[in-house]
Structure formats: C-alpha cells, structure tokens
C-alpha cells in the first residue's frame, strides 16, 4: 500500500471532489425546483386531485315499498340478507378460496358458475362480486372466524325482496329481477343510481316508481380499494311508498286449492271497485327464486316446462270466450232491436245460412226445441245466437261488444295483458287481408271463430252484468280512482232481467250449471262456456276421449255472487278440461261459497295457516 | 506524512492525531446527522405503514444492526480493508454469478441468494461497496491520474458486475453500481477528454438500451413524459406520488393525516415512495428539512473524503458519498416525477434491512478511511 500521496494527487482528487459537490448542488437545486413547482405552484391542482381520490359520493338505495293485501297481510317484504362477497383483485387464488368456502359452508356447482358469470360481466376493479347468497348466521360465523385467512372475503347485508307467498302471488304481484339496460333507460337515472333490481311483472312492475322511492346520497371517504373508511355526511333516501292492493290472499289460495294442479286461470274482481281480488294462473312458480338470484339451471327448468309456468294465463292467455259472452250478446241483440224477450225460434239442432249447405250445429244434437232468449241463455242454445248474430250483422255486433272491453287491453295498472280479438270486418282485413265471410258472423254469435279474450277481459266484461250496466276496469292497487264505463241500453231493465236469467243458469233445472248451483244457501249468477280449441268438420263429432289433451275443449265460466248486490265477479278458464258446466262451474261454486259463506263476502280474515299450507303445496318438485 | 512531520519525535502523545475522527475513525458530526435521519425515517415509517409498530421496531433493529456494523468497521485498520478488497470483490462477483445460476426470484427477477446458515441476501448489495473499493484499489496502485491501460482495466471491472446485475434483471441497481465505479474514476482524475467521450457514448447507447429494456421498464420511462398516458397502470404510482407531494403544500396535512398515504392511494408508501408521505404530511417544509439533512450528510462526507490522507481512502469515500447522494436524488426524482420509476429506496428512510445495513457499512468504511496513518503504518 502506498501511503505516499504526492501533493498533485491530493490536489487532483480535491478538485474533483469540489466539482462533484457542484454537480450535487445542481441536482439539489433541480429537486428543490421540482418541489416548489409541485408543492407551492401547482398545490391547488393536486389538492383537488387528492380530494377527488378521497371523497366519493355514494348513492344509497331507498327501501322499497311493501305490498299488502286488502286485509293488510304482508305479501312483499324487504328482509336483510347476508351475502358473502369477494374482491377478486385482492385474491391470489380464486379457486383455492372457493374450495375453502365449499369445504366450510358448501358451494354448489351452480353457485360457482354464477360467481364466474358475475366475475366476467362488466365491473369496476375492486368491485365486490357475490359468492354466496342467503348465508345463515352460522355460515357467516364459520367464515368470519377464519376471516384473517381470507382478506378478500367480506359480508354484505342488503335487503332482499321476500314474497310471503311466493307461489300464490307470483303472477299477480310479480317479482323483482336484475335491472337491465332497457329498463334503466326508462327510469330517471339518478333515482336508480343505487338500485340494481326492477319490478319485472305484475304490481311490482306497474308501480315500480312508486314502490322504488328516491335515492339517498352519502359522502364518504374511501380508500384506494374503494372501501369506505368514514361517512362524512348523508342525505337519507326517500323510502318507496307502501301499497295495499285489492288482492285477497285467501281467495287467491282458494283458487289454487280448487285448481289443484289443473292448468288454467282465474280472475276475481270486486264489481263495486274493479279491484282485482284474485289473479291466478296455474301452474305458477316461486317469485322468491328470482329475488334470490335464480340459477340458470332452475331458470331453464321453468322455461322449458311444457306447461309454461312463467306464462301468465290470466293476463296473456287468449282463449275463445265461447258461450260465456252469450248474455252480453243477448243484451246487444235486445238493444239493437233484433230480438225481444218474447221472441221464439224453433231449434232443429243446427243453423243454416239462407241458400247455403253448411250446417252450424248446436252443442245439443237434437236441438233445444222452442227457444226464447231466456232459455237460450239458461241452456246455452247455440242456434238462437247463430240466428241473432246473423240478423244483427258483424258490423253492429262488433262495436257493441267492444263496449264490454273486448279487443283491447284492460289498462290501468294491469300491464302486459293481451288484447284478445274482437272480430270485425276491419280487423280481418288488417290481419288477414281477406273479406269477411257471412259464416264467420254465425260462429261469432257463440264466441268462437276469431274471438279470443283474456280471462281478465272476461272478468271485466262480467262486472257490467253484475253491476247492471256499469263496467268496472280492473285495478290492482287500492286508492286509485275507480275507472268505470256505463253501458246504456235502450231498455235499462234488460240488465236486471239478464242477471236473473244468469241466476237460472245455476238455479233452474235446465241450467247448464244447475249441478254446480245445487243446494246453494244463496243465489249466484253466471254463464258457462265450452270453447273449441280445434275446429271440427261438417259432420265430425267432438269426442273428448279420442282427442289429444292439448286439443280438448277449454272449460269456461263467468259469474258473480251473490246474484243480488254481488261482491265477487269471477272469470274461470280450465285449459283442455272439457265442458264449462261440468268443470268450470264447480270451481265457480267453490270460490263463491268460500267468499260469500266462509269469508262473509270478505269481511272475515282468511285462515293463514291454511294459506301458508297451500303456498307450500305449490312448491314444485324441481324447486329447491 | 503530515502527522509525522508536524510533530516532534519522542512525544508519544503527539503521534496521536488531534481530530477525533482521525483518532477513532468515528466522526461525531456525521454520526449525529445519520442518527437524526434514521429517527425521522422511523417516525415517517410509523405513519406510512399505517401505525404498524411491529414494522417500525423491525426497521429500528435494522438500523441498530447497521449502526453496530458501521461502528465496528471504524475499528478495522484501513490497510486490512485495502488488502481484502480484491478478495471481497472476487467473492462478490462469484456470488453474483451463482445468483444467476441458483438464485431465487421475486417479482420475476432473480436477485436473491439463499445460502445455508446465512440470511437471504442480494449479492448485488455487497457489490455496491466491493466494486468502488476494487476500482479504487486498482487505480491507486500507480500514481494518479490513472494511465489509459488502468482506466481500460477499471472499465472491465465495472462492466463485469454491472452486466451480471443487469441481466437479473435489476436495471436500477446496475446503473447505480456502474455510477459508483464511474465516481471512483472521476475522482481519480479521469481526463475530461475521456469523460466527454464517455458521455457521448452513453447518449449514443440510449437507443440500444431502449431496445434491450423490458416492456415494463419502457412503460415506466414513457409515463415519465406523460403520467396520464396509463393512469391505472405504470403511471398510477407517479401520479399518486405527485398528488401526495403536491397536495401536501407548504406545511403538509399533518402527521398521520395524509389522505393519499393513509387511504392507500400511494403505492409502496413504506418503501420506495416513502418520501411522498413526508411531502404529503409535512409539506414543503418537511421536504426541505429532509433534503437539508441529506445535503449536510453529503457535505460532511465530502469534507471527510477530502480529509482522508491517502488516495485509496479518498476515492472510496468519495464514491460511497456520491453514490449515496445519487440514491437520494434518484429516489426523490422518481417520486416527484422527474425520473422514471426504478426500484431505488430512499437511503436510511425506506423500510428494508439490506439497504440500511449496506448503507451504514458504507459510512463505516468512509469513517474507517479517516483513521490516521500513524496507527496504520505501525512506524
């Protein structure tokens, strides 16, 4: 080692040290300059940036309005639901975590598939993804104990819509589902900022905005992961309005009990208000499946079911009304002066247009003999109405029947119902680009041919008979202004007379529903209908035994009870069940007895244990 | 020797150098500055780690270990250091080589070496001191300024470890180690002509460097020019760090009240980006104090460098000092957005044991070079 350090060396290195110091000084000045720029000159800009980072305005979803039936029984409720959620960005090994959850509290293949679906859908980074819904407190505790091992997992308690009678009310009250982009376009965006569900059907859909309420705002301090650290201030959301609907859960349950699994629809209305007391479509499904997040396999099962449980027969089912509209047709004939109560015809069992070969047959092969309007209604004589329809002509018949609401949707807060078909020359030209044939008028006289009506239309039309001239539009929710239409007849007394004849349908020996009306403690009124599904040839006989089930006749019945001062109007259709008198009329009788006797026209409360039992019985085998 | 010539023979006491540092190697002024810096660092770490006491204690232990190593080194005779230099350099080079062959990776780079019976460490840390020592050792074998042949050999000495580290890949460290070797050459009196051509060569090499860089490295450079170009990716760190610094303003948001850091918008807030926490919570005033502290350490270390009474000591001390400063500059430059994001911790403040210990060992070497020749020469 050389310890001699010549002066030159010392001078040289010292020089270099000084130069280096100057270099360092320059860099220091550069850093200071940068800091002055950042911290003093541009300070305000960065304060804004930092505040924008930190402070977030988080919308708060309003609690949705509850739905109660006419007796105040809760039908749709919000219940806090514990969900297990994950921030996938904080997880190193998704599958390991999912396996760990499965080992502890169980995770089905469906749940896994749904998780991955949600993961792949558009989301912001660090947004939570639902792993498992409907956690029990015990499940939550099991996971929480090991929470430190799964920092990516969190619990989330959000209110979930719960339908007290998910099966009974699915078609009437509807259900909530994930809001889609179409629906988002139709609502005020800010109001829905925190909402991810939307009424899909029924009351939930029709009164969506009322039930929804208004969004609240929370100003929060959030960290980089979006996790809320502190709430700075809060504007509470405006809760949705609670709704009481006309529906009577007892009547609804009764309908399902009587249907006992048969396909069909029943609509019950209060003739005084137009309130829908029951709206039943069988088969049904559990609305709660949708609010819990239906798995794709369960949805597949519902969709592929040949009996179409998701199809709302009461609103969308379009059936030929058959003879159920004969009382209305009769009133139209009277009003037009085509027939009088005293007019009689001879019924040979068929009708022929003048100069035509074709015979339009009566349901009774040998005819009804001498028939007046009263008998034609009581015994449901086809020939009488063939003749009357032809004499009236479709151009007069059609607009008059239109007054009963046929051919249009019923409106108000009933959404998604079909309009049915009110046959007319103009309709046929528009629909089929064809002229109207006289034979089509003939069969229109018995509610066949092009005629189709929805069960709710039939119920609405029947209110006009029950109210002796005042048609009430159906409504779900109480407190709305009743919507009515008075149908004027040349002789207003005809309403009462027709109601009396409808009474005889059940209470006179020859009535088509005499069997159903037997031994009744009170009087009721109605009209049977048997609607052909398949057209029959000239001399073909209808043979239920040898007809495939889906082509068999629909059994229909419309009616009201009690016959005087009615409090219940019913429209009933049993798909492919056979004749209205033997199949649909007993349903009417049972419903009517339940309402008028057991419930004292709705003044007594229903037996809730029984209602719950009926709801539980509707559980399909393939539901969970 | 001045120490000998200044004093009359026979007076044993007079052989003892006057200065404390020359007598014991320890420079009290530098010592106080280092302790103050580490104290500040621990306080900031407490805030930056989210009041993680455990982490602060661990870092405190790192500091104590490094401090002990530093003090211990001041007692090592500098001729022993001088004589061990080639051996240590050879060992460091071999370790670097073995990292490439058997090293364990972290974040896609092989930097660590697991040796049985030793804590896991990065051989490049050892090289940070071994290389400047080796170059200084080589150049001081002949009178300064160095002859062209010695310069050439010195370059090879630098290129070898720098190359090994660069392919790990650890571009940041390799550049800093290259700088430490270059500082020795510069202090040794490398001719300005050669310096100029080196700078020119460096500029010419930039496009080449660009093509061999990894994608993530290129992105980091790109975001330097426009941090908003990739605000959620490579630009995120820089933008959030600048926001932290800028929003701190003159007097800061207050201790543990920096929203950028506390709400985790600031990435790596306890390691590479810790200076942003200082800037956010203590503002420009805090930054000025911090930088002044570094400047004082730099100044004092340069004074000590100039005072070393032999060229080896001066070259080594100077290189250690300048490299230390470059660390500071690169780190603050990166955090404040004037340099690309490279993984360089803020010396003695960022969390991390290896860095603290190796930096303090560097200061230990620097102080060791202060000890009088009288003690060394054994005359």
Notes on the structure:
The complex is a heterodimer of chains A (624) and B (379). Chain A is built from 24 helices and 21 strands. With 624 residues, chain A is of the alpha+beta class. With 379 residues, chain B is mainly alpha-helical. In chain B, helix 4 (28-48) runs antiparallel to helix 14, helix 7 packs across helix 15 and helix 14 (274-307) runs antiparallel to helix 15 (311-335). Chains A and B meet through helix 1 and helix 2 of A and helix 6, helix 9, helix 12, helix 14 and helix 15 of B.
Labels describing this entry:
heterodimer, A: 624 residues, five-stranded antiparallel beta sheet, 39% helix, elongated, B: 379 residues, 2% strand, disordered N terminus
Topology:
The complex is a heterodimer of chains A (624) and B (379).
Chain A: H1 7-41, H2 43-54, E1 55-60, E2 67-68, E3 74-86, H3 94-105, H4 109-120, E4 129-132, H5 137-145, E5 153-163, H6 166-173, E6 176-178, H7 181-185, E7 197-199, H8 202-206, H9 208-212, E8 216-222, E9 228-235, E10 243-244, H10 249-259, E11 264-269, E12 276-282, H11 287-291, H12 296-304, H13 313-316, H14 326-336, E13 344-347, E14 350-352, E15 359-361, E16 369-372, H15 373-378, H16 382-392, H17 394-402, H18 425-432, H19 438-444, H20 455-466, E17 470-472, E18 484-486, H21 493-507, H22 514-517, E19 525-531, E20 554-561, E21 568-574, H23 580-598, H24 608-617
Parallel strand pairs in A: 2-10
Antiparallel strand pairs in A: 1-8, 2-3, 3-4, 3-5, 6-7, 8-9, 11-12, 11-21, 13-16, 14-15, 17-18, 19-20, 20-21
Chain B: H1 2-6, H2 12-15, H3 20-24, H4 28-48, H5 53-74, H6 78-102, E1 104-106, E2 109-112, H7 123-139, H8 148-166, H9 171-187, H10 192-212, H11 215-225, H12 234-248, H13 259-262, H14 274-307, H15 311-335, H16 353-368, H17 373-377
Antiparallel strand pairs in B: 1-2
Helix pairs in contact in B: 4-5, 4-14, 5-16, 6-7, 6-8, 7-8, 7-9, 7-15, 7-16, 8-9, 9-15, 12-14, 14-15, 15-16
